[in-house]
Design goal:
Largest sheet: 6 strands, mixed
Order of helices and strands: EEEEEEEHEHEEEEHHEHEHEEEHH
Shape: globular
Strand content: 15-25%
Oligomer: single chain
Structural class: alpha+beta
Number of strands: 17
Helix content: 25-40%
Length: 282
């Protein structure tokens, strides 16, 4: 995700009309008609909902454009289908409302499908993800057991939060969370990393791709613990039952894998180890 900054973002939904987002590749600063449809033959645009503070999958660059691995994939899919890509930043904890209301066509932003298969119509998984803990470089925390009595933060409604609070067949992680002094939630991981840097919290539970971005971007300020909290997979989430749009996007991704375009996009993010995490076509 980029240089470290806090962003003020909002997704505005009203009577099927939404505001477009600043980007060199999207409809800029104008109202975009909601074209909710499952008929790909009539589709002219794809509205992708994403967390704009989630590097390297989706974020705002120094020029104020929305960029990232997932958005690059979405742009190529749209180009091949003759669609306009509309990059719509959303509050992550309102993603279900955005999707079910039709204000976005899909959630494409490091979105965990593991354990959510009955709530969305998903593409095939394309990234193997781990949830890890990140601490300050000078911290005395070296193992998960060292987190006892510490303040841990994660993003609201994230898979990391689920991994620490899900009560079904999760005794080990629940016991770990119970050992914390507290488990805090913030709206985005930029805020979490600022809180870690300032010493407000002791550790962050975060997806490894985001962690690696921050470790690469911030030099030696942070480090991650070796043992992951959990493992999972990312996929593109569509409204439950919207198999036609899912199939069109999936078929296009498969074509990108076959002709090498998918790997070329992955290579642009090798600094963040995404080349070691992708699983589509493997």
């Amino acid at each position: 995700m980029k240089k470290f900054m806090a962003l003020a973002l909002s997704a505005v939904v009203a009577l099927g009309v939404m505001t477009g987002c600043s980007s060199s590749n999207t409809t800029d600063d104008k109202e975009t008609e909601n074209t909710e449809t499952t008929d790909t033959a009539d589709r002219t645009q794809l509205i992708v909902g994403f967390d704009a503070e989630y590097p390297p999958y989706g974020y705002m660059d120094a020029d104020g454009n929305y960029v990232g691995f997932d958005l690059d994939l979405a742009q190529e899919v749209c180009d091949r289908n003759g669609w306009t890509l509309v990059k719509q930043p959303i509050d992550w904890d309102t993603k279900d409302m955005e999707l079910n209301s039709g204000s976005i066509d899909c959630i494409w932003n490091g979105f965990t499908c593991t354990g959510r298969e009955d709530k969305y119509t998903f593409s095939e998984p394309y990234v193997d993800n781990s949830i890890v803990f990140v601490v300050r470089a000078d911290s005395d925390i070296n193992t998960k057991e060292d987190l006892a009595g510490k303040v841990v933060v994660t993003q609201a409604d994230s898979s990391a939060l689920t991994a620490l609070t899900n009560e079904e067949d999760n005794d080990e992680n629940l016991a770990l969370a119970a050992s914390f002094a507290s488990l805090e939630q913030v709206a985005d991981y930029n805020t979490a990393f600022m809180n870690l840097e300032s010493g407000i919290v002791d550790a962050i539970a975060v997806d490894i791709g985001v962690a690696q971005y921050q470790l690469t971007s911030r030099g030696d300020q942070f480090r991650k613990l070796d043992e992951p909290l959990s493992t999972e997979q990312y996929a593109i989430g569509f409204k439950l039952g919207n198999t036609e749009l899912r199939d069109q996007v999936q078929n296009t991704l498969n074509e990108m894998v076959e002709d090498g375009t998918f790997d070329k996009i992955v290579a642009n993010y090798s600094d963040y180890n995404l080349d070691q995490m992708v699983c589509l076509g493997k």
